[in-house]
Amino acid sequence: MALSPLFLLEVVILFSFGVTGIFMFLPARETLVHKIFFSLAVMLGILVTVIDATSLPPGLKPQIIIAWLGLVPSAIAIIAAVAASRPTVLSKLLVMLTSIWGALGYFFLG
């Protein structure tokens, strides 16, 4: 069984998200580090969701909608982080949920 390029890309993105997730939760004196890794995690979550939703065939409308709904936790996380002027634990967990949602969607929606 050959691995598809899309699957390999998904694995690389999820590995990158794991690394950013680790650095996002490490204690640091400066919130700049947390903001940078939070932003990277948001971008990776959006990328996973876009890949997941656009790789589905057009005939699977309900699955496409479910895939795009994965962006809702990320949007809530961004709003919470902006309101608190720094990424909170809740916003970090919501961003992680977006990437997990996208990864699971890649395997189970199609």
Give short descriptive properties of this protein:
110 residues; mainly alpha; 79% helix
Distance between the termini: 18 Å
Mean pLDDT score, rounded? 85
Sum up the overall morphology in one term.
Answer: flat
Over the alpha carbons, how many angstroms does the gyration radius reach?
A: 15 Å
Secondary structure class reads mainly alpha
Strand runs, count: 0
- Treating each run of at least 4 consecutive H or I residues as one helix, how many helices? 5
Indicate the percent of residues in helices. Answer: over 70%
**What does the largest sheet look like?**
none
Estimated share of beta-strand residues: under 5%
What order do the SSEs take from the amino end to the carboxyl end, as H and E?
HHHHH
**Which residues form runs of ≥5 with pLDDT under 50?**
none
Description of the molecule:
There is one protein chain. With about 110 residues, the protein is an all-alpha fold. About 80% of the residues lie in helices and about 0% in strands. The chain is built from five helices and no strands. Helix 2 packs antiparallel against helix 3 and helix 2 packs parallel to helix 5. The chain is flat. The two termini are about 20 Å apart. The model has no long low-confidence stretch (mean pLDDT about 85).
Structure at a glance:
With 110 residues, the chain is mainly alpha-helical. The protein contains 5 helices and no strands. The chain has helices spanning 5-25, 31-54, 61-68, 71-84, 89-108.
Architecture blueprint of SSEs:
Layout: H1 5-25, H2 31-54, H3 61-68, H4 71-84, H5 89-108
